[in-house]
């Protein structure tokens, strides 16, 4: 849970930083538009449009800022830190590493999952109870030897030598009904635990498949936004602003391009955090202790 909370805290900080950077850009545009509006070069609607966009960003920034303390408090609790410990925004996420094959992940799930280990221990206990119940239904054979030392005071008919006596006994269970009930109960308990384990294993496999999907999908999105959409969004913004500067485009196109670029940047931040959280979920399900590195 620490890694999951850390990744969420990182996302809040990254989203806040990205939104503030875009607001700074808009502030510069507003100053330019004010000057041009005073000179009669742009319409009042252009100035209002950028001011409305600034108001929307201010709302987003306030929401993100107010989420910092609850998110930091959760992280401090999970890390067993003092409530007054200051937690700066993380500047990077830990590296999630390369995902193992599905066969390896499933094998790790069966061998390392904590919930399955508990059910395995319960099944072993019921198996031992069943073995005990079965043994109690069998006759109990006893074999022994008894040694009797003979001294000088032995009777006339005795040889005076030490005597050995062999003993053989058999104990036959008579309460067969009670023992049969104990066997049936032990079998039922063991089968119930095995059924629970089978159900739990299926549920955990489904959870693992979903976590793997989230991992693959998040990695795909990070690559898409980082390598394609964000660079293209930046080019679109620059082209739209150049067209506006030359009088060949309107300012609404500039705002649309800027809004798209902001959205792509925030979605990449979200996908980056989701990628780490998915990896943490996979490790938890498979019982793998990972040393996270930046």
Provide a brief overview of the structure.
The protein contains 6 helices and 2 strands, in the order ααααββαα. With 294 residues, the chain is mainly alpha-helical.
* Number of helices, counting only DSSP H or I runs of 4 residues or more: 6
Low-pLDDT stretches are none
Helix content: over 70%
Shape: rod-shaped
- Taking all Cα atoms into account, the compactness measure Rg is 38 Å
> What oligomeric state is this?
single chain
Number-wise, the strands total 2
**Mean pLDDT level:** 83
Largest sheet: 2 strands, antiparallel
Helix-strand sequence:
HHHHEEHH
Strand percentage lies at 5-15%
Strand order in the sheet with the most strands: 1-2
How would you describe this structure in keywords?
single chain; mainly alpha; 294 residues
Can you characterise this structure?
With 294 residues, the protein is mostly helical. 72% of the residues lie in helices and 6% in strands. A two-stranded antiparallel ribbon has the order 1-2. Helix 1 packs antiparallel against helix 2 and helix 5 runs antiparallel to helix 6.
Write the layout of secondary structure elements.
Layout: H1 2-38, H2 44-78, H3 102-112, H4 114-135, E1 140-148, E2 163-171, H5 176-245, H6 251-286
Antiparallel strand pairs: 1-2
């Amino acid at each position: 849970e620490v890694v999951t909370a850390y990744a969420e805290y990182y996302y809040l900080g990254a989203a806040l930083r990205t939104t503030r950077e875009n607001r700074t850009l808009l502030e510069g545009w507003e100053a330019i538009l004010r000057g041009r509006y005073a000179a009669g070069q742009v319409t009042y609607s252009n100035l209002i449009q950028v001011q409305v966009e600034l108001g929307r960003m201010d709302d987003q920034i306030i929401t993100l800022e107010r989420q910092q303390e609850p998110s930091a408090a959760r992280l401090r609790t999970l890390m067993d830190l003092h409530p007054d410990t200051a937690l700066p925004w993380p500047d990077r996420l830990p590296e999630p590493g390369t995902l193992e094959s599905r066969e390896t992940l499933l094998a790790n799930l069966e061998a390392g999952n904590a919930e399955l280990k508990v059910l395995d221990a319960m099944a072993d206990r019921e198996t031992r109870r069943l073995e005990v119940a079965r043994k109690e239904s069998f006759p109990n054979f006893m074999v022994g030897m008894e040694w009797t030392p003979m001294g000088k005071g032995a009777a006339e008919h005795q040889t005076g030598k030490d005597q050995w006596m062999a003993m053989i006994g058999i104990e036959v269970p008579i309460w067969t009904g009670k023992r049969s009930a104990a066997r049936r109960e032990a079998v039922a308990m063991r089968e119930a635990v095995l059924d629970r384990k089978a159900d739990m294993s299926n549920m955990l496999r489904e959870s693992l498949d979903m976590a793997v999907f989230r991992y693959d999908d998040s990695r795909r999105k990070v690559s898409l936004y980082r390598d394609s959409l964000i660079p293209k969004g930046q080019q679109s913004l620059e082209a739209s602003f150049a067209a506006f500067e030359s009088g060949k485009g309107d300012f609404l196109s500039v705002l649309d391009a800027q809004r798209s670029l902001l959205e792509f940047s925030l979605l990449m931040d979200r996908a980056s955090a989701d990628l780490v959280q998915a990896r943490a979920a996979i490790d938890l399900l498979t019982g793998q202790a990972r040393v996270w590195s930046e």
